[in-house]
């Protein structure tokens, strides 16, 4: 994916009263020492009522003849003014489980039909800065299904996503290369890649 | 660490004009299709001029007789109203390198004296929501140094951090347990743990 025409033209401060998707909040809290202080943070305004999380990210590992590959996405992100490499992800709909959201988002963004295998605890993106969070859902993709060979993503009108996959084994080295090529790296993806690299570096063996 | 008295008393919308550390921004951008659109996002106001990143997180692995352990922190986070388990981390100072920031923050927050080993690409916490980012610095800690047995953290007046370490090998299982115990999980830490778990699950072998 080339960045093409995509670029930021201008930025301006946004008052909460005009914001539709995000807001800035001041919290008054009591600290561990009993002293009352304030804290600033940012929030999404989209979390469904009753849901403890905003969205999901998807770990989809494809079993290829040449080894396991992980499904990733390239997407221009205006806050960074760069194309960012990320796990497939999306916001959860009202009354939707994490597993349903993961399967739906993966289908919409990549065309792959998958089944949820495991779901993580809630993970907070930047706990001092905002309350945004997600669950990480690991899915299985049956590559023998006809629909997984004839992919039909259903992107929204303003979504431009390039889907690709790389060897799970060398993901960290790819992250380093992608930055050198001018891409931005999502922290959840890069932290996952670093975990694999550290496990390999220290020869951490399989656990029962 | 017990949450003790720590709790949110109230929250209110915060106008940009009164915000000190964060701001809400509207970006006008051209998309890949050449169409002009707007995007909302949040930013830190603390990134030093000329620095492409906000801060650092630290992977500090302690070589213990009983196996490798990773250094972690518990900290009450007002945006979550929970104690969150995270890697040691902090904002970068003006004209400071990522390596200097990592060694300084680790010393201040945990007391450990360390040396930087490797530094990651820039990692973006939540690219659709905000532009906050960091570099992940892996450090070595010489446990034979006297200062690393007689730890002297230098916390600020409003910082309350409990330092602890757990086996690198079982980090993902610990993450699951921590949530069940009522702790919040940082996404960078949990993604790193998931990477280790996936490497173990698939028996990914050491790379040269």
Describe, in plain words, how this protein is organized in 3D.
2 copies of one chain form a homodimer. Chain A folds into 2 domains: 14-45, no CATH class; 46-201, Nucleoside Triphosphate Pyrophosphohydrolase, CATH 3.90.79.10. Chain A has 208 residues and is of the alpha+beta class. In chain A, 18% of the residues lie in helices and 39% in strands. In chain A, the strands form 2 sheets. In chain A, strands 4, 5, 6, 7, 8, 9, 10 and 11 form an 8-stranded mixed beta sheet that branches. In chain A, strands 2-3 form a two-stranded antiparallel sheet. The interface between A and B is large, with 103 and 103 residues. Strand 1 (7-13) of chain A pairs antiparallel with strand 2 of chain B. Chains A, B: Keywords: Hydrolase.
Task: Summarize this structure briefly.
Chains A, B: Keywords: Hydrolase. With 208 residues, chain A is an alpha+beta fold.
Descriptive terms for the model:
alpha+beta, Nucleoside Triphosphate Pyrophosphohydrolase, two-stranded antiparallel ribbon, 3 helices, homodimer, 11 strands, 2 domains, 208 residues, eight-stranded mixed β-sheet
Largest interface chains and counts: A-B, 103 and 103 residues
CA-atom Rg of chain A in angstroms:
19 Å
Q: Give the CATH topology of the largest domain in chain A.
A: Nucleoside Triphosphate Pyrophosphohydrolase
The CATH homologous superfamily of the largest domain in chain A corresponds to Nucleoside Triphosphate Pyrophosphohydrolase
Tally of DSSP helical segments of chain A: 3
Reported CATH architecture of the largest domain in chain A: Alpha-Beta Complex
Q: What is the tally of beta strands of chain A?
A: 11
Q: Say what oligomer this is.
A: homodimer
Described by the principal axes of the CA atoms, the overall outline of chain A is globular
Biggest beta sheet attributes of chain A: 8 strands, mixed
| Overall number of domains of chain A | 2
> What is the string of helix and strand elements of chain A?
EEEEEEEHEEEHEH
- What is the overall pLDDT average of chain A? 95
Estimated share of beta-strand residues of chain A: 35-45%
Structural class based on helices, strands and sheet pairing of chain A: alpha+beta
């Amino acid at each position: 994916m080339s960045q093409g025409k995509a670029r930021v033209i201008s930025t301006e401060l946004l008052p909460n009263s005009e914001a539709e998707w995000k807001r800035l909040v001041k919290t008054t809290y009591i600290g561990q020492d009993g002293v009352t202080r304030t804290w600033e943070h940012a929030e999404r305004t989209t979390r469904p009522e009753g849901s403890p999380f905003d969205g999901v990210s998807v770990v989809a590992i494809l079993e290829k003849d040449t080894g396991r590959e992980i499904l990733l996405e390239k997407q221009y992100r205006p806050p960074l003014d760069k194309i960012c490499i990320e796990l497939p992800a999306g916001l959860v709909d009202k009354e939707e489980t994490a597993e349903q959201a993961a399967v739906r988002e993966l289908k919409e963004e990549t065309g792959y039909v998958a089944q949820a295998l495991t779901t993580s605890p809630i993970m907070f993106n930047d706990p001092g800065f905002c309350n945004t969070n997600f669950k990480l859902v690991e899915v299985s993709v049956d590559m023998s299904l006809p629909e997984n060979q004839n992919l039909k993503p259903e992107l929204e009108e303003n979504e431009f996503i390039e889907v690709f996959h790389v060897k799970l084994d060398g993901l960290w080295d790819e992250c380093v290369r992608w930055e050198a090529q001018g891409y931005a790296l999502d922290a959840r993806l890069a932290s996952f890649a670093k975990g694999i690299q550290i496990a390999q570096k220290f020869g951490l063996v399989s656990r029962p």
